[in-house]
Amino acid sequence: KKTMLGIGAIIGTGVLVLTGLVAARDAGPAVIFSFMIAAIVCGFAALCYAEVASTLPVSGSVYTYSYATIGEFIAHLMGWTLLSVYVVTTAAVAGGWTGYFNNLVSGFGLEIPTELLKIPSQGGIVNLPAVVITLVLTWLLSRGTKESKRVNNIM
């Protein structure tokens, strides 16, 4: 029942946001090799998690595994590092989504002021679409797995 939710979480929007940019600016046609190298690296990371999960059959992630193998201090650092990664990743994906959203509404003849599409360091006031989508998704996730799965399946 949760297969589609898992697929949506695994694939994410990074593939959609960055693939064209990487192919156009950096790798060109060799982008397929970049994907193959990334797949191998991800496979090794997955094997590491599988090994630890089979050794320590408890629910958890980086914090739990670090706590059980290295100790509380390192686990604490790993937990905060993971939280920081989630915050930065959420901001980056929401910022990438803004570009797609702006293109979508432009197709309907609507224009969002530039000041509401950029953060202050880029000459704007606030990236309003990114803030709104982050708040909407936070609300959706707080509603529970059933509602999140339903919306994910629709998308």
From TrEMBL:
Protein's name in the database: Amino acid permease
Originating species: Bacteroides fragilis
Residues annotated as transmembrane: 7-24, 30-52, 73-99, 119-141
Domain of life: Bacteria
InterPro entries: AA/rel_permease1
Subcellular location: Membrane
GO cellular component, one term: membrane
Keywords attached to this entry: Membrane, Transmembrane, Transmembrane helix, Transport
GO molecular function: amino acid transmembrane transporter activity
